[in-house]
Amino acid sequence: MSNIITGEKEFFKGIGAIGYEGPESDNPFAFRWYDANKVVAGKTMQEHMRFAVAYWHSFVGNGGDPFGEPTHVHPWDAKADAVERAKDKMDAAFEFITKLGLTYYCFHDVDVVDYTNDIKENERRLNALVEYAKEKQAASGVKLLWGTANLFSHRRYMNGASTNPDFHVLAHGGAQVKAALDATIALGGENYVFWGGREGYMSLLNTNMKREQEHFAKFLHTAKDYARKQGFKGTFFIEPKPCEPTKHQYDYDAATVLGFLQKYDLLNDFKLNLEVNHATLAGHTFQHELQVAADAGLLGSIDANRGDTQNGWDTDQFPNDINEITESMMIILEAGGLQGGGINFDAKIRRNSTDPADLFYAHIGGIDIFARALITADNILQKSDYKKIRTDRYASFDGGKGKEFEEGKLSLEDLRNYAAENGEPATISGKQEYLENLINRFI
């Protein structure tokens, strides 16, 4: 592995390239299910899932929480100069990504290099790291799946960025997004994400919700128009989340975002980036959010993680629920796959997982659970009566009066007359338990 990929020093010593060894392997540093070139449902696993490493959790997260100091002390954070320190972090990131054998990464602007309160200095720092990243990408073959700007951590954004009641703050958000878009375009980023972490409200007593949502839409149009003028051909994603840190966020869930995009004429350029833990916080299953997006033709990309049923906040743990992921992969396969995006591990190792190897274990497990789910989902769709059962359940709409209803040919009086003439409907089983057993049988 060349120095341009690993840098002058190796940060994950003693850990080599992670390869596929099959389901019988006991090697914790090997994939048991993910065989990148294995063809499933007409595409390789790599093409289906386009796994990406999250720069923020993996190389910036320090294990700190509101009750305790950091527990992850990164060796790449040692240098005093911000740009040189950021280059070390990028060396570590590309070493990790290439050892995993993955193709993509994702970042927020402030993950790449520490920002100050000086816009020009921030742009200088980010540009320096963009040039360094170009070299790393060229040497490794790793690509940028998407970039984004962190418009929620700095105190100026305590009341939001594009929805802030102070135009001065909104302008700062615009400056940050411009720089992040420039970086994404320069690095050949395939998409760009907006997560409205504080685009919402804490209290309606001091909030003009209508005006804030109009500003949000205007901001998205302005950013989109700028990027298109710069030649950006990729897709813009919005990532729904209902709350936390705000009481209520305007991108609450997939259905809310769909309505927002329709209302403000953004459907042609935007799709959804859906997160498992965000679906849970919205009171939905991840499968529900995927289906809403797929039905609307907006299933763009996903953030893979999970929450904790005993902890009502965004814990961002690595995925490990084979049933949940299998059902999710069935939806993705039936929808024809993700549109432009991939599977980004927006997940962090636990506070007490302090060994460098833990970051590998977490990603290996997350990658394997999706690979196993992909194989299982394809088998269910191809080799079971799953699709037939669901199709048969709606058979009454495939002909006769049911079809006429779908075609808009029946009046309310026609419905009444049909019901009166045909008496009480038969009781027809939904076969839920059978289908749940079917999923487990194929797993």
UniProtKB/TrEMBL annotation:
Residues at which Mg(2+) 2 binds: 275, 278, 314, 316
Metal-binding listed as a keyword: yes
Keywords recorded for this protein, A-Z: Carbohydrate metabolism, Cytoplasm, Isomerase, Magnesium, Metal-binding, Xylose metabolism
Entry keyword Membrane: no
Chain positions recorded as Mg(2+) 1 binding sites: 239, 275, 303, 346
Alphabetized NCBIfam families for the sequence: PRK05474.1, xylose_isom_A
Annotated family: Belongs to the xylose isomerase family.
UniProt-recorded name of the protein: Xylose isomerase
The organism of origin for this protein: Mucilaginibacter polytrichastri
